[in-house]
Specification:
The protein is α+β, with helices and mostly antiparallel strands and about 900 residues long. The protein has 31 helices and 28 strands. Strands 10, 11, 12, 13, 16, 17, 18, 19, 20, 21 and 22 form an eleven-stranded mixed β-sheet that branches. An eight-stranded mixed β-sheet has the order 8-28-27-26-9-23-25-24, with helices on both faces. α23 links the parallel β27 and β28. α24 packs antiparallel against α28 and α27 runs antiparallel to α28. This is Calcium-translocating P-type ATPase, SERCA-type.
C-alpha cells in the first residue's frame, strides 16, 4: 500500500477505523491474530538442551568424567556411578541458575519496554508498543520513539530524526497532506513516520499502517538478526579473578597429588582425588552466581519501583556520591495546583488541593465569579492553550498530560468553565513548548471566525514580548511601572514557594501571517498563575538518610530561584551556608570555574537541559560518581554522560529512558535512595558468597595438603570431596545472594569504584577462615584415626562431617562484615532453609545404609557429634570476637 499517496479519509476507509474513535477491543484482538505482535524478530534464544550441556563443557569436569570412566573399567562401579550422579546434579543446579538469570533478564527487558499513547473505543490510553496493531490511532510528542510505521494525521511543528533508517541526522519536518509522486524512498515520504525513529520537536497524531517485521525497520532487521550479550565490569573483574583462582587451585591440587604419590599412595587414587579436588575447588560457577545475584537484586528493585536497564548500574549505585534530581515530580508530588492568580494588578486566591475540581476564587475574602473582568478570559485561554485532559476514574480526577496544563484545567473547572467549551473553538495551529522557547502558543478560532493567539510560558520570556496589558477597564499600553508591579507579584509568589506561569493573547486578522517568528510579538499580557507542587512526604527523610550515607542531594529545576530555595529549605536539602545558582550565573561560568565551587552548591534554579551537562561534568571532574535524573529528550545527553542516568517512568520520554541506566516507575526521589540501598546490598551479597566459596575451597585443599605433608592417609575420598562441593557450595551460596542489607548499609560512605574485590579485609577473611576450616577438619581426622586406626572409613566420615558443618556454620559468619554475633542468624529464612537442607542431605549420606558404601561413610554416635560440632564452631567463634 502506498499510504503516503492517500488522503486521511481513504486511509481510514482502508483500515476500517475512524480517527475520532479508534479501534474497538474486538478489532484489536482480530488484528493481533492476523499480524502478530508489534516487535522486531530477535536472535533465537539458546535451547534448554544446549544450556544444560554447557554445564559440562568445563575442562576439569570433562577430565573427571574421563577418570570415572576409567574407574568403572577398573571395576570401581560404585565410585564411578556416585561421581556421575553428583556431576549430573551439579549440572542441573548450574542449568537452573542460568535459566533463572535468563528469565529475570527477559522480565526486566519487558518491564522497560516503551509504551504508546493510543485511542481505542474513543478513549486515550497507554499500552505497550508491542501491543499496537494496524489501524491504531496514536499520539506522539517530542522525545517519543515512533512505535510503528504510521501515516501522519495531524502535525503540530512535528519533526523526526530518521538517521536510524536513512543515515541523515538532520530532522525531517512532517505534514499530513497526501503526496502524489510515485516510487518515493522512505526519507521522502514526509507524511509518514517510521518505527524506531525519534520525535525531536512538536507533536502530532498518526494511524498505524505497519507493525513488527512489516515495517521499514523490520525489512532492515530481517537482513541481520544479532544480539550481543554484554557483561558488567564486576562480571569481567570476577572472570579475570576466576582465571587466577583456577591457576592457584590447579597448582595446589597438583602439589597434593605429587606429595600423595611421593608418600606412597596409589597413583590412580591420587589422580582421581586430585581431579575431584580441582573440580570442587575451582569456582567455575562464580560468574553464573554473580549473574543470578544481580538479576535477583534487580527483581527486588522492580518491587521497589526501580527498573534497572543496565546491570552495570547496580554496581555503580553503591559508589554514587551525588544525586542530581529534578524538583518537579521527583522531589514534589507532581500534582500542580493553582493557588494564586495575579490579574488586574490584584492577587486572587484559589482554594482546593490536587486535582479535585471543588474550590473557589477569592479576593479579600470575597468570592469571585465569571463576571470579574478578565478572569473568565484568563481561565478560558489556559484551557485552550493546553495539551492535557482531565479524566474522571472511580470518582477521582486525574490528569493525562503535563501536570502544569492539568492545574489550569482544574482551576477553570473551579470557575465553572466546562470541557464543552472546546466545541466552540477550533485550534488552527500549535507552536509547541520546548526548553529553549520556554513557552507554548496556539492559534484559536471562535464561532464567529475570529482568530487570536494564546501564549503561555515563563514570565521573564512573555514580559519582554508584551506591548500591552489587560486591565479592568480594557487593554492598555505596557508601562515601566506595570512591569515592576508584575515582577513584584512574581517575587511574592516565589517567596511562598509558588511556581509562576504567565499567560498572554493577541488578536489576529483573518489574513495575518502565521509565521511563528512574527506571531509571538506585541502580546497583551493578561496575568500570572501561581502554582504549588507540594514536596513528597517521604523525600525529606530520604535526603537525610542519603546525607548519612555520604551522598549529597542536589536539586535541579527550571523554576524561579526563590521557589527552588523555599522547597529546598522545606526538604532540609539546603544547609545554612549552601549556595543556590541560577541559569544566568551558569552561562557565565566554565566547567572549571563551576568545579571549584560545585561542592558548596545544593540548588540549581532556572536551568536548561544544556546546563545539566555542565553540572554533571563539574561534579565528575571533582571526583564524584553522579546520578542524574531527567525526563525530556534534551536531558538525554546529561543522563548519558552521568555515571548513573535515571529517567522517569511516568513522565519520561522514550529517548530519555533509552539513555538511562535506571527508570523510576513512580518518578519519586525516595525510590532513588531505595535503589542505592539495594545496589549497595547486591554488591555486599556478592562479596559475601565470594568470601564463603573461596574460604570453603581453601579449607578443602588445605585439609588434603596438610594430611599429605604429614604422611597420613587420605582424609577425604573423591566422592566425598565432590559431595562437599555440591552440599555446601550450591544452595547456601545462592541464599547469601538473597540476604537483607545490614542496618548500617546507609551509614557507610560510598564505595570507591576502584576498590578491588578483596578490599576491606576480605582477602584476610578468606585465607584465615579457610585455613582454620582446613585445620579443624584435619584435627578431627587425626583424632578419630588415632583412636581407631583400623577403621579409616570412620576417620574419613569424621573429617567429611566436620568439613561440611564448619562450612555451613561459616556461611552465617559471612553475613556480616563484623562477626557471626553481629546479626540474627534466623533473619535470612532462605539461608536457614538452605543450611537445613544441606544438613539433611549430610545425615542421609551418613546414616542411610544403602549410601554408606557409596560415600565411604559410617554412622556416628553422640560423642562423635560433640567432637565434630565443637571443632566446626571453632573458626567462626574464634574470629567472632575480633573485628577482622
Amino acid at each position: 500500500m502506498k499510504w503516503y499517496q492517500m488522503d486521511v479519509d481513504v486511509v481510514e476507509q482502508k483500515l476500517h477505523v475512524t480517527t475520532k474513535h479508534g479501534l474497538s477491543d474486538k478489532q484489536v484482538e482480530q488484528r493481533r491474530k492476523q499480524y502478530g505482535e508489534n516487535r522486531l524478530a530477535s536472535e533465537k534464544s539458546t535451547s534448554k538442551w544446549l544450556i544444560f550441556l554447557k554445564q559440562f563443557q568445563d575442562f576439569m569436569v570433562l577430565i573427571l568424567l574421563a577418570a570415572t570412566l576409567v574407574a568403572g573399567m577398573l571395576g570401581e562401579y560404585i565410585d564411578a556411578i556416585a561421581i556421575m550422579v553428583i556431576v549430573l546434579v551439579n549440572g542441573f543446579l548450574g542449568y537452573f541458575q542460568e535459566r533463572k538469570a535468563e528469565k529475570s533478564l527477559a522480565k526486566l527487558k519487558e518491564m522497560s519496554a516503551p509504551v504508546a499513547n493510543v485511542l481505542r473505543d474513543g478513549a486515550w490510553q497507554k499500552v505497550l508498543s508491542q501491543d499496537l496493531v494496524v489501524g491504531d490511532v496514536i499520539r506522539i510528542n517530542s522525545g517519543d520513539r515512533i512505535p510503528a510505521d504510521i501515516r501522519v494525521l495531524q502535525a503540530n511543528s512535528l519533526e523526526t530524526e530518521e538517521s536510524a533508517l536513512t543515515g541523515e541526522s538532520l530532522p525531517v519536518m512532517k505534514h499530513a497532506s497526501p503526496i502524489s509522486r510515485d516510487n518515493l524512498d522512505a526519507q521522502d515520504q514526509v507524511n509518514m513516520s517510521f518505527m524506531n525513529t525519534l520525535v525531536t520537536r512538536g507533536s502530532g497524531t498518526g494511524i498505524v499502517v505497519g507493525t513488527g517485521m512489516n515495517t521499514v525497520m523490520g525489512q532492515i532487521a530481517s537482513l541481520m538478526v544479532k544480539t550481543k550479550k554484554t557483561t558488567t565490569p564486576l562480571e569481567h573483574k570476577l572472570a579475570e579473578l576466576g582465571k587466577v583462582l583456577i591457576a592457584v587451585s590447579l597448582l595446589l591440587t597438583a602439589l597434593v597429588v605429587l606429595v600423595g604419590v611421593y608418600q606412597g599412595h596409589a597413583v590412580y587414587n591420587m589422580f582421581l582425588a586430585g581431579v575431584s579436588l580441582a573440580v570442587a575447588a575451582i569456582p567455575e560457577g562464580l560468574p553464573a552466581i554473580v549473574t543470578v545475584a544481580l538479576s535477583l537484586g534487580v527483581q527486588r528493585m522492580i518491587k521497589k519501583k526501580a527498573i534497572v536497564r543496565k546491570l552495570s548500574a547496580v554496581e555503580t549505585l553503591g559508589c554514587a556520591s551525588v544525586i542530581c534530581s529534578d524538583k518537579t515530580g521527583t522531589m514534589t508530588e507532581n500534582k500542580m495546583t493553582v493557588k494564586e492568580v495575579f490579574l488586574n494588578d490584584k492577587s486572587l486566591y484559589v482554594t482546593g488541593d490536587g486535582y479535585d475540581v471543588k474550590g473557589n476564587i477569592f479576593f479579600n475574602n470575597h468570592k469571585m465569579d465569571r463576571n470579574y473582568p478578565n478572569l473568565e478570559s484568563m481561565f478560558l485561554y489556559g484551557m485552550l492553550c493546553n495539551n492535557a485532559s482531565l479524566m474522571l476514574r472511580k470518582g477521582k480526577y486525574y490528569v493525562d498530560g503535563d501536570p502544569t496544563d492539568g492545574a489550569l484545567l482544574v482551576a477553570a473547572r473551579k470557575l465553572g468553565l466546562s470541557h464543552q467549551l472546546y466545541d466552540n473553538y477550533r485550534i488552527i495551529k500549535e507552536l509547541p513548548f520546548d526548553s529553549d522557547r520556554k513557552r507554548m502558543s496556539v492559534i484559536a478560532e471562535d464561532e464567529n471566525k475570529m482568530r487570536f493567539l494564546i501564549t503561555k510560558g515563563a514570565p521573564e520570556v512573555l514580559l519582554p514580548r508584551s506591548a500591552y496589558i489587560m486591565k479592568e477597564d480594557g487593554r492598555k499600553l505596557m508601562r515601566g511601572d506595570d512591569q515592576q508591579t508584575i515582577k513584584r507579584a512574581i517575587d511574592g509568589m516565589a517567596d511562598n514557594a509558588l511556581r509562576t506561569l504567565a499567560i498572554a493573547m493577541k488578536p489576529l486578522a483573518k489574513d495575518e501571517s502565521l509565521d511563528s517568528a512574527v506571531l509571538e510579538k506585541d502580546l497583551s499580557f493578561i496575568g500570572l498563575y501561581g502554582m504549588m507542587d507540594p514536596p513528597r512526604k517521604e523525600v525529606k527523610q530520604a535526603i537525610s538518610e542519603s546525607r548519612e550515607a555520604g551522598i549529597k542531594s542536589v536539586m535541579i529545576t527550571g523554576d524561579h530561584e526563590k521557589t527552588a530555595r523555599a522547597i529546598a529549605t522545606q526538604l532540609n536539602l539546603l544547609p545554612e551556608n549552601g549556595m543556590v545558582l541560577n541559569g544566568s550565573q551558569l552561562n557565565n561560568m566554565s566547567v572549571g570555574e563551576l568545579r571549584d565551587i560545585i561542592d558548596q552548591v545544593y540548588v540549581f534554579a532556572r536551568v536548561t537541559p544544556e546546563h545539566k551537562l555542565k553540572i554533571v561534568e563539574a561534579f565528575q571532574e571533582e571526583g564524584h560518581i553522579v546520578a542524574m535524573t531527567g525526563d525530556g529528550v534534551n536531558d538525554a545527553p546529561a543522563i548519558k554522560a552521568s555515571d548513573i542516568g535515571i529517567s522517569m517512568g511516568e513522565s519520561g520520554t522514550d529517548v530519555t529512558k533509552e539513555a538511562s541506566s535506571l527508570i523510576l516507575m513512580d518518578d519519586n526521589f525516595a525510590t532513588i535512595k531505595s535503589a542505592i540501598i539495594e545496589g549497595r546490598n547486591i554488591y555486599e551479597n556478592i562479596r559475601k558468597f565470594i568470601r564463603y566459596l573461596l574460604a570453603s575451597n581453601v579449607g578443602e585443599i588445605l585439609v588434603m595438603l596438610f594430611a599429605m605433608l604429614l604422611a597420613m592417609p587420605l582424609p577425604l575420598v573423591p566422592v566425598q570431596i565432590l559431595w562437599v562441593n555440591l552440599v555446601t557450595d550450591g544452595l547456601p551460596a545462592m541464599a547469601l545472594g538473597l540476604d537483607q542489607s545490614e542496618d548500617d548499609v546507609m551509614k557507610r560512605g560510598p564505595r570507591n569504584p576502584k576498590e578491588g574485590i578483596f578490599a576491606r579485609g576480605l582477602g584476610f577473611k578468606v585465607i584465615s577462615r579457610g585455613f582454620l576450616i582446613g585445620i579443624v577438619a584435619l584435627i578431627a581426622f587425626m583424632t578419630a584415626y588415632q583412636d581407631n586406626s583400623d577403621n579409616l572409613i570412620y576417620a574419613q566420615t569424621i573429617a567429611f562431617t566436620t568439613l561440611v558443618m564448619a562450612q555451613l556454620i561459616h556461611v552465617f559468619d559471612c553475613r556480616s562484615e563484623h562477626s557471626i554475633f553481629a546479626r540474627n542468624p534466623f533473619e535470612n529464612k532462605y539461608l536457614v532453609l538452605a543450611v537445613l537442607s544441606s544438613i539433611l542431605l549430610l545425615l542421609v549420606v551418613i546414616y542411610w545404609e544403602p549410601l554408606q558404601p557409596v560415600f565411604h561413610t559410617t554412622a556416628l554416635g553422640l560423642r562423635d557429634w560433640a567432637l565434630v560440632l565443637g571443632l566446626s564452631f571453632l573458626p567462626s567463634v574464634l574470629f567472632g570476637f575480633t573485628k577482622k
